[in-house]
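ok, trying the design again with the full structure, not the truncated one.
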């Protein structure tokens, strides 16, 4: 476009100039007038080109969005009616392979948690702990075996009922660039301020929040305060507690807090999770010792089950890491 306009300018000057020299034009001002006309045309002509290119870009973008919108979720929600979830969870010989990596994350895993019980899952990183949590929330469907919630196959339950009755604290706590209050309220939009404070106290973050200048209205993230990993985890716990879910899953969510704070939070949670099915995932024996049942995972298989008492009385992985972590604690106390 700019080239065309430049050429037009040159042509006007050339032919206008020639005619002036030949005496065909008497008034040289006419040439200047024509140049101004051409330059007045620049903008509208350039815009035509510009709009055409934007339309083309939009076409491509819309194409990509459509591709995404037309994508069918692999998790099918058959049950349209809402189901009431009580919180009995049973894994029956579950084997699960991640499709994209072909990693078999769980092999023949079976366990049963009754409503109101606390199950702890212990194991090294990569042993399949988070996979179990994801399967309970039905992020994936299992390949072999079955997951039964309230004695019914998980596929037969209404998906949104299932997910809204689970309070899930993920391993990597994610906070939005918003106020602390709104971040907690994601769990329940209509929560009252007193409820927010109650769950913050249970998650042992209330005291920290009170010390910020804007209290619960403090912005977090890029534009606000930067929270420590442990503080983020605790806000994320408060978020999970606020909707009073039937099932609570804490996926390694106390890894970034010290053992003393961990003890306080676990004690608070014991009260808050009364009557609720609770799953605590951790690699620390201090987090799991009060659970009704403990399962120890290794490379996707359950290698030990029992309670803290029974597991420390027999030789095995649990006893080993219990002693190891006890030693570490003694050293750090010295
Ligand atoms: P843990 O929580 O005990 O550290 P995970 O359940 O996250 O273990 O992972 C178990 C195995 O599954 C690991 O080998 C991991 O690499 C693999 N895995 C985990 N998540 C995914 C995923 N989304 N896609 C593919 N493979 C995964
Ligand atoms: Mg994990």
């Amino acid at each position: 476009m700019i080239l065309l306009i430049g050429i037009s300018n040159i042509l006007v000057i050339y032919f206008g100039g020639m005619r002036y020299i030949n005496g065909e034009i008497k008034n040289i001002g006419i040439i200047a007038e024509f140049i101004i006309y051409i330059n007045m045309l620049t903008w509208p002509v350039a815009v035509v080109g510009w709009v055409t290119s934007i339309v083309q870009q939009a076409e491509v973008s819309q194409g990509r969005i459509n591709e995404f919108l037309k994508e069918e979720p692999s998790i099918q929600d058959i049950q349209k009616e809402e189901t009431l979830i009580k919180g009995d969870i049973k894994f029956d010989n579950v084997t699960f392979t991640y499709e994209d990596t072909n990693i078999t994350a769980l092999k023949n895993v079976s366990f049963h948690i009754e409503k109101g019980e606390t199950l702890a899952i212990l194991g090294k990183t990569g042993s399949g702990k988070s996979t179990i949590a994801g399967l309970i929330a039905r992020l994936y469907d299992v390949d072999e075996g079955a997951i039964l919630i309230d004695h019914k196959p998980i596929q037969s339950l209404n998906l949104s009922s299932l997910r809204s009755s689970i309070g899930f604290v993920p391993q990597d706590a994610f906070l939005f660039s918003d106020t602390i209050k709104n971040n907690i309220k994601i769990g329940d939009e209509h929560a009252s301020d007193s409820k927010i404070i109650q769950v913050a106290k249970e998650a042992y973050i209330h005291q920290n929040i009170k010390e910020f200048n804007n209290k619960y209205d403090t912005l977090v993230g890029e534009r606000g305060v930067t929270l420590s990993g442990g503080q983020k985890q605790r806000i994320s716990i408060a978020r999970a507690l606020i909707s009073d879910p039937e099932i609570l899953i804490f996926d390694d969510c106390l890894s970034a807090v010290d053992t003393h704070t961990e003890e306080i939070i676990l004690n608070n949670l014991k009260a808050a999770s009364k009557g609720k099915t609770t799953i605590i995932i951790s690699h620390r024996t201090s987090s799991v010792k009060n659970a009704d049942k403990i399962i120890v995972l290794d490379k996707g298989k359950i290698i030990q089950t029992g309670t803290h008492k029974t597991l420390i009385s027999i030789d095995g992985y649990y006893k080993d890491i219990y002693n190891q972590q006890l030693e570490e604690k003694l050293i750090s106390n010295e």
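Keeping the full-length input from now on. The domain at 89-333 is CATH 3.40.50.300 (Rossmann fold).
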